[in-house]
């Protein structure tokens, strides 16, 4: 038996952990920064190219249009033309509707569908994204700016702050993309976005009762209690004519959505349904003089393309903080929605988009938009989904949409003055219904209760308080959860399965066998000052429990094996924790062995002297099996020595 153990030890010694590997400090820092800010390594392969080719490659990286434009064909244009015209028919009613939702002149919504899509076609990396305004960001901007500048008191300053907020949104988005700080957007988890969008949709639907009932006065607040109170406070303004017409529009729009679900090939019916509602509603309001009979209309729309608004940006001390706040919150939300939509649609086509390039594209188009009478734009899900199903091939579909909007602005804008406000409210209501994802709520509850709580905090915070409170509380809870995972990492006891070659968590695999006299623990996270104390107490508790179990069987715990394969890094506090654990176990006569430490961890443990001076290099192994073999050999030698002394 001794020979077998010795042979096993020799075999294990043939495959040792490389303890001599060292990286220069500069290389370690460079590698760390590259993994943090350039995980996709966008410039790989550039080093072998000549300088001109490298410059051209870098230019194509930042201007994706240079990549697809030279290969563009007439066949692709046919598809993009159809998709562009289709999303233009959706952009017109949505642009007017979302501008009214933000208490802006309706023409601003059309302006925002003209310039930004042109810039996205040049700088955007998604073939499927359709650019435009979004309901959630529109309401968020309005709720923040209205707190200090009510639109009815100073409409000109209110509009200027929207332009200024769009400028700061663009600056923030561009900076995030240039400095590769997309990880900030990752703090908006899917659960947070689902809850926030659902809560926002619920509030927007409630607010549309103003248009559905033909009311003139309404609360600027967004919480549910204020909205309900306002509806009944001004019930004397209710117009039955608007309500009847609104119900008819709702039934028509919902029927078109139902038809799309039953017959996906007829997706275009639901895509043009909002435009048809605007046309039919406008003709009806014109014929019956709706504005005089309880059906309020949009009013005059100026003919002409976007006027310059760069001179209207306001940077006064009194209002700049408000614009920065509005631009930051709405910009992060718009980034999260736009990138999520682009990635989900790209996944279906087996394509890839670069999140940092998308940030730069969004930033550029919002900066340019703020100079040309536009407010915040991104990639809305509804319009992008229509663009995708219409068969778009490249971002050229955004150019086609932009040209269509330009023609409307130049020649047809005044015709939309008769559009009933109730038609816009019906369009918004139907668009928002799809954002309340009850099935997703149920899925979160079934799969992860904590994620469900994060989702509900966002939903309830938005519905009963404010959009900023709902979003902030949900993000805060998500961060707390992440910190808990770091501060209280998972550790587990391993047992042997498959004849002793494989070791797995004994709670996951109850049939896994314990190794006599040996405790195997797996640490599955970085060891930092935040969790070092917890890990020390947890390891010692495992040891105490194992000692008690061994005593029941008349044995002693001889060795503790720490599997460090999942420990990606360690700091000085973590090393100190390992020293304390070693001293504690040494007093009990228990050896400690390490297995499979990673390069960064090995470097620090060697430099600190923990491996060389504390446990010894001979107690660091490549696999758990090697460590167990060595423990058994040491135990056998100890017993032989004791027998010899006797």
Structural class by SSE content: mainly alpha
**Major pleated sheet:** 6 strands, mixed
Overall pLDDT level: 87
Q: Note poorly predicted spans.
A: 1-13
Radius of gyration: 32 Å
Strand runs, count: 6
Measured by DSSP, the beta-strand proportion falls in under 5%
| Main sheet: strand order | 2-1-3-4-5-6
Helix content: 55-70%
Which of globular, elongated, flat, extended, rod-shaped describes the shape? Answer: elongated
Q: What count of helical segments does DSSP give? A: 27
Distance between the termini: 21 Å
Give structural notes.
By secondary structure, the chain is mainly alpha-helical. It has 27 helices and 6 strands. The protein has a 6-stranded mixed β-sheet. Helix 5 crosses helix 18 (396-412) and helix 10 packs antiparallel against helix 22. The protein is elongated.
SSE order and pairing:
Elements: H1 2-13, H2 25-37, H3 51-62, H4 65-68, H5 74-101, H6 106-111, H7 115-123, H8 135-145, H9 155-178, H10 190-207, H11 209-212, H12 224-233, H13 240-262, H14 267-288, H15 317-348, H16 355-371, H17 381-389, H18 396-412, H19 421-433, H20 438-447, H21 449-464, H22 467-487, E1 491-497, E2 502-505, E3 518-523, H23 532-552, E4 559-563, H24 572-587, E5 591-595, H25 599-607, H26 610-615, E6 620-621, H27 624-645
Parallel strand pairs: 3-4, 4-5, 5-6
Antiparallel strand pairs: 1-2, 1-3
Helix pairs in contact: 1-27, 5-14, 5-17, 5-18, 5-19, 7-16, 7-18, 8-15, 9-15, 9-16, 10-19, 10-21, 10-22, 13-14, 13-19, 15-17, 20-21, 21-22, 23-24
